[in-house]
Design brief:
Layout: H1 3-21, H2 27-60, H3 63-229, H4 246-255, H5 269-278, H6 280-296, H7 303-314, H8 321-335, H9 346-362
Helix pairs in contact: 1-2, 1-3, 2-3, 3-6, 4-5, 6-7, 6-9, 7-9, 8-9
């Protein structure tokens, strides 16, 4: 094979290898490179034809072979330079295309983001508008419910106030009725109490009058009995001794309040004398009561005089205040209730003796 053909084939194979290497580039770059390669291929095809012609001419003219080889080397170098330039141009074109694609993609992404943001803003605006409408509707419904509730509360409050006023009025009426009943009952009770008090007063007055009459009768009876026992209350106590006869002792015991003297019929005279001496205090008590009966049983017209007389009789018509004092001491010891236990006449006799002594002090 001629050297020129081998060089052309080498250049063609190199172009083919470069063209296959461009297949690994991006689509746009491949398209640009494919166009360049096709143009290069057409140029190389023309160069190959020229080389074939040159090879044929070289075969005819070996002398011109060297020049042809030089031309071929120069053509190959030019082709290589052209191919390199084409590859560089394709690379630049690819880089430019890639940057443009990136810029276009970035712009598209920004546009898409802007569109999404606008759509999101529109959606948010729509949602906010719907929420505002729903909130307005909710507030309107709440306001309507609040007005209805306020109206119901006002109606219930008015009803409650009316019921309360009615209850208060009814309670006032019941209280007034109860007060009227209370007043009427109080009037009835007061009238009944007055009637009962009047009746009780009448009964008490009647009972008091009857009791006073009974007391007067009893006092008159007691006075009559005392007057029977002591016809002369101013008499002094008899001197009891062995010379005192039994009838005198019996009379003394009767005056002392011993009514069952008949039971002493079988007793000896010393025994009766001893009993009479022990009843000296009882005898003095009844003598003083006989002196007091002079004033209580006397008519009102002479009662004051009778009272003075009874006081003098209590001390046996003593002539001086010293005698009155001496008799008062002796009789106080004799008629004291402690000295006469069980004798009901001791206390009134003791009181009368003190009263008589107080009155007698003013008469001296």
């Amino acid at each position: 094979m001629a050297p020129g053909v081998r060089a052309a084939l080498a250049v063609t194979e190199s172009s083919r290898t470069q063209w296959l290497g461009l297949l690994n580039l991006p689509l746009e770059t491949q398209t640009a490179a494919r166009g360049s390669t096709q143009a290069s291929a057409r140029g190389m095809a023309a160069d190959a034809a020229a080389r074939r012609q040159a090879a044929q001419a070289a075969a005819q003219c070996q002398a011109a072979g060297q020049r042809q080889a030089v031309v071929q080397r120069q053509a190959a170098e030019a082709l290589q330079t052209t191919t390199q330039r084409q590859v560089e141009a394709a690379a630049k074109h690819e880089a430019t295309t890639s940057e443009a694609a990136q810029r276009h993609g970035a712009e598209a992404a920004q546009h898409e983001v802007a569109q999404r943001q606008a759509a999101a803003a529109a959606c948010a605006q729509a949602v906010a508008q719907r929420q505002a409408e729903e909130a307005a509707k909710h507030r309107a419904a709440e306001a309507a419910r609040a007005r209805a509730a306020a109206q119901r509360q006002a109606a219930e409050a008015a009803k409650h106030e009316a019921e309360h006023a009615a209850e208060v009025q009814a309670a006032a009426q019941r209280q007034a009725a109860a007060q009227r009943q209370t007043v009427q009952a109080a009037v009835h009770r007061h009238a009944a109490a007055q009637r009962y008090a009047a009746e009780a007063a009448l009964r008490q007055a009647a009972e008091a009058a009857e009791a006073q009459a009974d007391a007067q009768r009893q006092a008159a009876e007691a006075a009559a009995q005392l007057f029977l026992l002591f016809p002369n209350p101013a008499v002094e106590a008899p001197q009891l001794g062995l010379a005192t006869t039994v009838p005198q002792l019996k009379d003394y015991l009767l005056q002392a309040g011993v009514s069952d003297v008949e039971t002493f019929a079988g007793m000896e005279t010393p025994e009766i004398l001893d009993l009479a001496q022990r009843k000296a205090g009882a005898w003095e008590c009844r003598r003083l009561l006989a002196c007091q009966a002079l004033s209580t049983s006397s008519p009102l017209s002479v009662r004051h005089q009778a009272t003075s007389t009874s006081f003098r009789y209590a001390f046996h018509n003593a002539g001086t205040f010293a005698e009155v004092q001496q008799q008062y001491r002796d009789k106080m010891l004799r008629v004291h209730p402690d000295k006469n236990p069980g004798d009901a006449s001791a206390t009134p006799a003791f009181q009368f003796l003190r009263q008589a002594f107080e009155e007698m002090k003013t008469s001296f």
